[in-house]
Design goal:
- It is built from 6 helices and 2 strands; from the N terminus they run ββαααααα.
- By secondary structure, the chain is mainly alpha-helical.
- Strand 1 and strand 2 form a beta hairpin.
- The two termini are 42 Å apart.
Length: 175
């Protein structure tokens, strides 16, 4: 499922616009599509419309000011966000920092609202293996919370860890 280019809702309308021999696909929710269609003259795409990115990731359709991106070219590799979008590859690890504001909505739309990869399990993994993996993840998160002095979050993580460990102990006694 694609997400709306402007907001986090599910895209229900997929509009293909043609301009200058190029086609642009817009994936919009109903309200954003309605707003977009109200701003477009009969005959199609606005003249200042370079790419789907000019209406956002969270920009404003139909505003008189163009949507500004917070990024410039990467100082390390020299790639621009527009180049990344056209070729689909970043130039260096620093680009994740440089283009952070543009990448977050893009990643959320690709990964169904998530921006962090959590991995997959093979279909036949036992519950104990899943719990072990979850314990490792929670313990790493607890360490980070303590390092950042986020003690309330650390206490919640500690309680989760204890609950999983107790559950594993009780299931081990039954077997």
């Amino acid at each position: 499922m694609k997400k709306c280019l402007r907001c986090t809702k599910q895209a229900t309308l997929h509009i293909t616009e043609l301009k200058g021999g190029k086609s642009f696909s817009l994936h919009l929710c109903e309200s954003c599509a309605s707003e977009y269609l109200d701003t477009v003259k009969v005959g199609g795409i606005p003249d200042d419309f370079d790419s789907p990115l000019s209406i956002g990731p969270i920009g404003s359709i139909g505003s008189d000011t163009p949507v500004e991106t917070s990024s410039q070219d990467c100082p390390i590799c020299g790639i621009s966000y527009k180049q990344f979008r056209s070729q689909g590859r970043l130039g260096c690890p620093h680009d994740y920092v440089q283009f952070h504001d543009e990448l977050i909505p893009l990643l959320e739309s690709i990964h169904h609202g998530e921006t962090q990869h959590v991995g997959k399990f093979p279909p036949k993994v036992s519950d104990d293996s899943r719990k072990q993996h979850e314990l490792i993840r929670l313990k790493n998160e607890l360490k980070n919370a303590i390092d950042e002095e986020a003690y309330e979050h650390a206490a919640e993580l500690r309680d989760e860890i204890e609950a999983i460990e107790n559950e594993m102990k009780s299931s081990a006694k039954q077997h």
